[in-house]
Specification:
Layout: E1 2-6, E2 9-11, E3 17-24, E4 32-38, E5 45-50, E6 56-58, E7 66-71, E8 76-81, E9 90-99, E10 103-107, E11 111-115
Parallel strand pairs: 2-11
Antiparallel strand pairs: 1-3, 3-8, 4-5, 4-9, 5-6, 7-8, 9-10, 9-11
Length: 117
């Protein structure tokens, strides 16, 4: 599976962005999908997750501001980010995983989000 993230950019505080992560290589609907982020000098952290069964979970820090969704026809996972704050500035990565007999996981290349006035 190859993952291509896009949609990052520079936005003012309070603004919105929508990140997309397009998957290729087949079997997208069998993977759980996540969004992680890594800010300057910080560890990578889980932001939002959506399972193959469409169950979603969110980090407390972004609760009620971000929404994760997926479109299995388009093989794409999205992260709608509203009410952005400077502390949301980071490189955002999409991640795919599944476990059968072996754990499979893949990372996208990351997309930069900068929240600044």
């Amino acid at each position: 599976v190859q993952l291509q993230a896009s949609g990052g950019g520079l936005v003012q505080p309070g603004g919105s962005l929508r990140l997309s992560c397009a998957a290729s290589g087949g079997g997208f609907d069998t993977y759980d999908m996540d969004w992680y982020r890594q800010g300057p000098g910080k560890q990578r952290e889980l932001v939002a997750a959506i399972t193959r069964g469409y169950t979603t979970t969110y980090a407390e820090s972004i609760q009620d501001r971000f929404t994760v969704s997926r479109n299995n026809v388009k093989n794409t996972v999205y992260l709608q980010m509203n009410s952005l704050k400077p502390e949301d500035s980071a490189v955002y990565y999409c991640h795919a995983s599944k476990t059968s007999n072996t754990k499979y996981e893949y990372w996208g290349q990351g997309t930069q989000v900068t929240v600044s006035s």
